[in-house]
Amino acid sequence: MTGRTLLTNGLVLSCDGDPGEKSARADVLIEGDRIVKVAQGGLDADPASTRVVDLHGATVLPGLGDAHTHISWPLDFVFDHAAIAATPPERHILDVAGVTKTFLESGYTLIIGAGVTQPFDDLLARDAIERGLITGPRIVPSGSMVAAVDGLGGDGEMMEVAGDAKGLREIVARQCDSGVRSLKLFISGDGVVPEFPSEDVYMNDEMLGAAVEEADRHGAFITVHARGSASVAMAARTGVRIIHHACFLDDEALTALEARRDDVWVCPGLHYLYAMVSGHARPWGITDEKIEASGYHREFASQVDGLRRLKAAGIRILSGGDFGHQWTHHGTYAAELQRYVELADMTPVEAIHTATRNMGPAAGLDTGEVREGMLADLVVVEGDPTEDVTVLQRHDLRRAVLKGGRFAYVNPEVYP
Ligand SMILES: [Zn+2]
């Protein structure tokens, strides 16, 4: 065996950018960790040198990605951040391994860290996955979240705290030196914590500019928690790569985003808000009164409206968002795509793009399309995700997941 694999007798959804793409009959030849050929007419391969895998009509699409991931939140997480932080590390890291396994088995081959609860969770998991000790997706690692002294998280209990541009630059440099590549800064409040409303803005242009510059020097990038429009505008004009939430968008924020259309991405976390305002968190103590007080109803409506405006303006949207609560359980990550279709006027293919072709470039990786030269990170599903995007949530329809050209997960229900 020379490391060549031919996926034959399947349908391919290439995610080439056409929002009306339909899956089409094609064979995919993989050599080493990359796709070397996608042939519509089918390919002949010498079985002596190539492993031929008959897909029996299943669909191959790029492996999915999640751009706002907390692998620190265990499978039974119930908003108890302090308890997670206090769990003995040797026990906690096994919980983390359970989460990375769940991502991979859910068809997710790439995650971008959005902050960890124990400082080295992403880095340790990434290294263990690369060494083959545990299974999981590719990880763009994050470190501890970073707050402003006067902002949400500024008490320093769960986050690092910066008082000025110099202090922030030092934190960024230190995290980058440890291997972190996706830094997470809190530059707005969050309605769920009433003392820190979503419209609040923390840090300033000088601080963010310094953070972006320092991260860039290390080949890393800055991501921000930014719910209100003023924080989004600041992030856009200072060079932040991924803006999380972006709920309230005014013209200033939209204009600033448009000016950076080629190197900024917005990751809304729509399903999380949807679940919160739909009462899904009620059994875990997030009462209707608490949701009412958070302003999340208004925020949700505004985010739906904002997503339509972002789409119309050609700003790339990334799928992802705080999965891991009991009401947005690990393993249900592709529910985000369903919300885009139901609420944000996307076709199923456009929704899939937020987890594939938009994701690779945001992470700086050759992933997210099924075409020659790309990394062979793929998911094989039954059913037609271009007609019904919810098939991507169905564990019984997921046949296999490939990462770097190798079968990283094979559904034991499908292949005994
Ligand atoms: Zn988060």
From TrEMBL:
Start and end residues of each Amidohydrolase-related domain: 59-405
InterPro entries: Amidohydro-rel, Metal-dep_hydrolase_composite, Metal_Hydrolase, Metallo-dep_Hydrolase
A Pfam family this chain is assigned to: Amidohydro_1
TM region positions: none
Protein name: Amidohydrolase family protein
